[in-house]
Design brief:
Length: 223
């Protein structure tokens, strides 16, 4: 078997980006501001951002939930898929990350349709469930990987038939294929994959995606 060619994979991602993701000053400023504020550069890639945007458009999403805001890069891609009267709620534990995201979303002209809720995502989701909030059309899970299975259970309680649930970082360079992954992020992602694969209320797939390493996203629709 030939070895996986990381350079080729990177070139292919750059090729796809050059075709389908035009240079965008708002997104470039988002990344620059997040870097200047000291946030880790762990946002989705440009091609992944475009994929998130397209999935949200295809789903016709009007009400979206994001778990893990960071500087609001994926938030920007998702919010751009919303109609003018749409709404995106994004959950972030770190007040510092949330402050950067707030600046970035305001600069992007998206502060009117996005809302950042600061605190533990599971607690925020339980509060929404307790308040009887209406279901979301689209949910993007991208916070701490050890919480993924818990977020899935809560996301399902905030879903309706047809809700799309997309989750980042579900391959972790293949570590999720180990029987008992050493890395806790990979363990969390593996448990998530097992949970969606077996779940009676979900139809799902995982797609490998190359960024700095081979990772991937999972896509599910609620039955
Ligand atoms: N979705 C972003 C990247 C998110 S990185 C993008 O692609 O642009 C993961 C984020 O989840 C970090 O900002 C981290 O602070 C946040 N996070 C970690 N644990 C969390 C928790 N328990 N509740 C809410 N957010 C959490
Ligand atoms: C990492 C990557 C991510 O996309 C994320 O959401 C969290 C962490 C990482 O590679 O460490
Ligand atoms: Mg991620």
């Amino acid at each position: 078997m030939t070895k996986f060619d990381e350079q080729l994979a990177q070139k292919i991602d750059t090729y796809i980006e050059s075709l389908f993701v035009p240079a965008d000053p708002v997104l470039a400023a988002n990344i620059a501001n997040s870097h200047a504020d000291g946030l880790p550069a762990i946002q989705v890639s440009a091609t992944q951002g475009k994929l998130l945007y397209l999935l949200a458009r295809i789903a016709g999403a009007r009400r979206m939930l994001e778990i893990g805001t960071l500087g609001g890069y994926s938030t920007t891609w998702l919010a751009r898929a919303l109609p003018a009267d749409g709404r995106l709620i994004t959950l972030e534990f770190s007040p510092l990350h949330a402050a950067t995201a707030r600046k970035n979303l305001t600069a992007a002209g998206l502060d009117g349709i996005t809302e950042i809720r600061v605190g533990d995502a599971a607690a925020s989701m339980r509060a929404m469930i307790g308040a009887g909030d209406p279901p979301f059309d689209f949910i993007f899970i991208d916070a701490d990987k050890t919480g993924y299975v818990q977020y899935l259970g809560l996301a399902l309680q905030l879903s309706r038939p047809g809700t799309v649930i997309v989750t980042d970082n579900v391959i972790r360079n293949g570590a999720v294929m180990e029987e008992n992954p050493e890395d806790s992020n990979a363990r969390g992602a593996k448990a998530y994959n097992d949970a969606i694969a077996a779940h009676p209320r979900l139809e799902s797939i995982a797609l490998p995606i190359f960024r700095d390493q081979m990772d991937g996203i999972a896509i599910s629709v609620v039955k």
